[in-house]
Design brief:
Elements lengths: L1 H19 L2 H4 L23 H18 L3 H13 L7 H13 L3 H13 L7 H13 L3 H13 L7 H13 L3 H13 L7 H13 L3 H12 L1
Helix pairs in contact: 1-3, 3-4, 4-5, 5-6, 6-7, 7-8, 8-9, 9-10, 10-11, 11-12
Length: 227
């Protein structure tokens, strides 16, 4: 059992995260908007019932490794405290260990911490802090963080509004296949915000998002092709 099981627990959680990022799950939830809850956050853990017993067995060693500085254990521990898997649910401790992992460079923890500051879950809402943690995660290539960072730049939340920066980060996430980023990049091209107005490029990005099932992208694509 031990830390190996804790990492199995983490891998299983990430499998769930990956599923919740697919268009099959997200189509009716996110159509070009910043996610409020974040599929990569703490939501949905209870959907994998077997993780409860796994977490109960692995908590002790995970806690020990986390205290020794193991960043994966710190991140795993934050999830356990967040949902009470193997231990009593404790949001402040979830935030504490998430922050520890984030400070130690864990991209997913950095994203989660940014999301907490963005939404005020477990911490006081602070857009400036949200941008800081999104940026750290985005620089490591985390597609969702890149998308959310772009959203903050686009709407001037925690930073001065900067369409060029928004386009830059949407592009990075779009290149990784994130449908919402592809859609939003298409919108910037269609409006000439942060990039020169370019309808062929808008169509290209709309089509990429539409091919993943994004309904708003399909609508935008139809509008441009029939204009």
């Amino acid at each position: 059992m031990g830390i190996g099981l804790a990492r199995d627990f983490l891998a299983s959680f990430r499998d769930l995260e990956n599923y919740r990022l697919t268009p099959h799950w997200r189509n009716d939830r996110l159509q070009g908007k910043e996610p409020d809850s974040g599929s990569s956050g703490f939501n949905g853990l209870v959907e994998i019932l077997t993780l409860t017993s796994m977490a109960m067995d692995s908590f002790g060693e995970t806690f020990s490794r986390a205290r020794q500085g193991d960043v994966e254990a710190q991140y795993s521990l934050s999830l356990m405290f967040a949902k009470g898997l193997g231990i009593t649910k404790n949001v402040p401790k979830a935030v504490y260990w998430c922050r520890k992992a984030a400070q130690n460079g864990h991209a997913q923890a950095q994203f989660n911490l940014g999301l907490m500051y963005r939404t005020g879950r477990g911490v006081h809402a602070d857009y400036i802090e949200a941008v800081e943690w999104y940026l750290r995660s985005a620089r490591q290539g985390h597609a969702r963080a890149q998308h959310n960072l772009a959203f903050m730049f686009e709407h001037g939340k925690g930073v001065d509004q900067d369409y060029a920066a928004a386009a830059k980060w949407y592009f990075k996430a779009a290149e990784q296949g994130l449908a919402e980023a592809q859609l939003n990049l298409g919108i910037l091209y269609s409006k000439g915000l942060g990039v020169p107005r370019n309808y062929p490029m808008a169509i290209e990005w709309y089509r990429k998002a539409a091919d993943q099932g994004n309904r708003k992208a399909k609508q935008k694509l139809r509008e441009l092709l029939t204009a």
